[in-house]
Each structure stands twice: as structure tokens, then as C-alpha cells.
């Protein structure tokens, strides 16, 4: 396994080399800035392009460094105190990393949607489509999200994830990459922010519940709260996607397919996006129901097994034979209170 020090040294060398080069801003800052005139002055907005791949690559190295720091200075110290098994130790590291990521993403995403006014004005999710020009914080958020989920692929090797766990982790990594990249490239960034906020909030609660469970196996209250929130979140995501894509975009006059202008508002594109969102939510719900049924089955099997175990029969107490008189401090006393004399054997 590549050590954390080696990863940090390689990443820092890459960062220093890029900063000293002439193309430092190409790696650090988002590209394709455009001045958009407003009523008072001009504001700088951004659109996407091929140079975004260079910026994403840079932040993949940054994410690897942050991942190593959290693992070495926080999670490893906590796991040593818990004395977890290998399976639980792997899941603990996974949930610990995702708790940090989901918490920071929820706070950041909530700040963006509030400051941009997407929560107070739901019509802004589909009005003035296509949303080609993005504010700095919106584009930077999407670039960091793509960098994180792309960095999760080499982390499967660095963390020595078990072969049985790799398909499951690849599934949700690819699921996030497809949805985030789709919202970014199809100019559905506003809708994508709201959906990510809902999804990340639920995932944060789930991984927090797993961490508390690893600390104390009798603590399952957060799992019950997560189970209730999970179904409600699926309903909100489906409702919001149908409202924005199925009804909002369908009423916009401009419904011509024009990739150069970033317009993908056609019936076929809307159906494909809705099908993808609905299929993903149905798959997550099916996995959730399957997992809950398995846990309930295991619980009832344990309870029935406890009922079938017969109670051990009690053996009757054997009477203890005592010599005549009474006992005092382990010595047999005669009835008159004196110790019985031992009989002398006559020699033949």
C-alpha cells in the first residue's frame, strides 16, 4: 500500500510545479469566464469547456491529500480505541470519510442555494433555461464534486478495499458521477444543487448512524431516523424532478436541440433525464427495502432461536450428611459443647 507520506509528497510536488509554471491559473481557478451585463454593472460568470478537466485533475490531488489527513490524524486514532474487526474497520473508515465529505458538501450546497435564491424562487430551476453561465461558486462546487468522486476510484486501491466491497462502492461512485456530470453538462445545475442537497443530507445521517453503531452496537436510534428520512427524500427528489423537467421545461417556448448554445430542452432529452432519475431512485428504494427485510428476518430468527432453547432443568439438591452434634468453625462439637474424642487404636 502506498504510504500517506508518499502520496502527500507527490501531490505537493505536483502543486508546487503547477504554481511555478505559467499555467498556474489553469489548474487552480475555473476557466471560461464571461462578463455578463446587469442593471447596475457587470458580473463575471463561467461556462464549461475542455479546460475544466485540468482543474478537476488538480483538485483530485488536493482531495487525495485531505483524504489522507483525515484518515491518519482522525479515523486511525479513533479506530484504535474501538478495537474493531477487519470488516468493521473497513466500513468505519468508509463512513468516517463520507461523514466529513457529506457534512461539508451539505453546508456548502445550502449556502450556495440560499445566496443564489434557488430555495426562495423554485421557478428559477427551469426559468431562463439553458443556464449556460454559472456564478463562480456554482461552477467551483461542481468541479470539486467531480474531483471528489473521481478521486474515490484510486482510493479503492490505496485503502485496500476488499474485493467483495469493490462492486458496491463502484456502483454508487458511478451513480454520483453520472448524475453530477449530467446536471453540469446539460445545464441543469440549479436543479442538480437541490437534488444533491437532499441526497447528501440523507447520506450524512446514514453514515453517522453507522459510526455510532460501531461505537456502541446497542445504539440503533439513528438508523430508525434515517429509515424514515430515506423514504421521504426519495419522494421529494422524484417530485422535484418531475415538476422541474416534466412540467417546467416542457412549458418553455425554446425547445430546439442546440448543443452549441447549451440547449437540450427536447422531449427525448427530458424523457431520458427523467428515466435516469426515476430508475436511480427506484434502485435505491429497492436496495433499501431488501436491506430492511434482511435485517428484520435476521432479528426474528434470533428471537425464535432464543425461544426454542429449553431451560436447563434444575437438579435436586443432595442432602449433606453430617455427623452427630453440631458444627462450629468446621469442627464437629458434641451435644454438650466439647469436641468428640478420637478413638485410640490398640496395637496388636
Cα radius of gyration in angstroms: 33 Å
Strand order of the largest sheet: 1-2
Tally the structural domains. Answer: 1
Helix content: 55-70%
Query: Uncertain runs with pLDDT below 50, 5 residues or more?
Result: none
- Computed structural class: mainly alpha
Q: Based on CA inertia axes, which overall geometry fits?
A: globular
Order of helices and strands: HHEEHHHHHHHEE
Number of helices: 9
What composes the largest sheet?
2 strands, antiparallel
Number of strands: 4
**How much strand content do the residues show?**
under 5%
End-to-end Cα distance, whole Å, is 88 Å
Give the overall pLDDT as a whole number. Answer: 83
Structural overview:
With 348 residues, the chain is mainly alpha-helical. It has one domain (4-308). It is built from nine helices and four strands, in the order ααββαααααααββ. The protein has helices at residues 4-20, 24-28, 52-82, 86-115, 136-158, 166-185, 189-215, 221-248, 267-308, and strands spanning 33-37, 42-46, 326-328, 331-333. The strands form two sheets. A two-stranded antiparallel sheet has the order 1-2. Strands 3-4 form a two-stranded antiparallel sheet. β1 (33-37) and β2 (42-46) form a beta hairpin. The model has no long low-confidence stretch (mean pLDDT 83).
